[in-house]
Amino acid sequence: MKIFSINDNDFSENFDKLLNRGKMDIEGVSSIVQNILNEIKEDKNSALKKHIAKFDKWTPKNDNELQISTQEMKKAYDNLDDNLKNALHKAYERITSFHKKQLKKSWFDYEENGNTLGQKVTPVEKAGLYIPGGKAAYPSSLLMNAIPAIVAGVKEIVVCTPTPNNEINSLLLASMHLCKIEKAFKVGGASAIGALAYGTENIPKVDVITGPGNIFVATAKKLVYGEVNIDMIAGPSEIGIIADNYANPKLLAIDLLSQAEHDEMASSIMITTDKDLAIKTKDHIYSFLKTLEREEIARKSIETRGAIIIVDTIEKAIELMNKIAPEHLEIMTEKPFELLPFIKNAGAIFLGKNTPEPMGDYIAGPNHTLPTGGTARFYSPLNVEIFTKKSSIISISEKGLQELGESCALLAHTEGLTAHERAIQIRLDKK
Fold first, then answer.
1. Between the CA atoms of 212, 217, 219 and 224, what dihedral angle is there, to the nearest 10 degrees?
2. pLDDT score of 332
3. Cα angle at 56 between 52 and 46, to 5 degrees?
4. Whole-angstrom Cα Rg for the chain
5. What domains lie within the chain, and their CATH numbers?
6. With DSSP H G I counted as helix, E B as strand and the rest as coil, what are the percentages for the chain, rounded to 5?
7. Which end of the chain is more exposed for a tag (fewer CB within 10 A), N or C?
8. What gap in Å lies between CA 302 and CA 239, rounded to an integer?
9. How far apart are CA 5 and CA 420, in angstroms?
């Protein structure tokens, strides 16, 4: 893992590499993904079965075999160990409670002249959730994507997840049962995004697609945007940590590895004011690596996309981290809440030594589907609003027409829109 200082001659070069960590070669795979989408659009389930045979190494015998039955979900739930079942329910309840606070209500503003203005909030009819299932299965992602849709009031939730060798994670099945999912399909990758965007014989066309995935999934989401809405174009996972000499290097090391073990392309970046802390943290990282089940993945991530930066002041650490705009940001300082007002760009912020990033992944309550690759500068975490849409409400009274009509007609006249102008004037009995 590379350690470098802000005072190094090559600092700018090294830091620029971190800023460009989220660059995905979407252009490089766009033609491949577009061909997959075109096949789904034209051949529907026939194309899906061909893609499943190629990418997931099994061949569905018929269309019905694409679907995951609710009986499978219930059986997996019933067979859960009691402790695991309790943990699943605790996560479900906390995530639900948090997202209920995001729910927006329709509102109306009644003006003195009798005008009524407002906003009507309506859930989308159908939502498609993509749940990864390649290098690892993520039942937690099912909860994080399904619960906001449930809270929003979406009538029909459709899940797609890859099933290599026709095998599916039992906890993912149990999570589907807990979320009362009735339509789930054994379809992954760009094929799944195409199926949700265009519809097939038994996979409904949806209004919005959410959920993380690899570069092919991200590219497919980008290409179908406009046909449907999407949550974001997410890349590999990442963590940033701001630490001072108060922090425990052992905790810093394992927290950095908590993202590195996701994917070889994951990024783990720490910025600290303490050189000794940087060295000790690196030493602990390599000690921990030997104990990880996913050591090979984590080691490659740490060595190719991990970094510890030494700075002179905590203010400089904040400045640099705001430029990085990490997906997850841990503030491991003596008084973390004092730094919070100065953090501008981060998907989720974890404050204090007792708040490791995995708490956010599973059970704290806020959503773990977060902007990556610096997009926290303008994107927000997945939330209830992505599953809703807003309509403006306008009702003008007779008095309101008299008060506003002339000004409205003048603006229309100035833009050269005669019918617009006359639509107002005819009501004012002028023309």
1. -90
2. 98
3. 5
4. 25
5. 2-23+235-364 (3.40.50.1980), 26-230 (3.40.50.1980)
6. 50, 15, 35
7. C
8. 11
9. 63
Amino acid symbol at 158 = V
Other C-beta atoms lying within 10 Å of the C-beta of residue 86: 11
Only one residue has tokens 């965007």, namely 197
Token pair recorded at residue 225: 């945007």
Percent of the chain at pLDDT exceeding 90: 94
- Which residue blocks in 119-167 are alpha helix, DSSP H? 139-152
Check 51, 177, 262, 328 and give the catalytic one: 328
- What is the DSSP secondary structure assignment for residue 63, as one 8-state letter? G
Distance, in Å, from the CA atom of 32 to the CA atom of 8, rounded to the nearest integer, reads: 42
Answer yes or no: 327 catalytic: yes
Instruction: Count Cβ atoms below 10 Å from residue 320 Cβ, excluding itself.
Output: 19
**How far is the C-alpha of 156 from the C-alpha of 388, rounded, in Å?**
13
pLDDT given at position 138: 81
The structure's pTM equals 0.93
The one catalytic residue in 39, 327, 330, 421 is 327
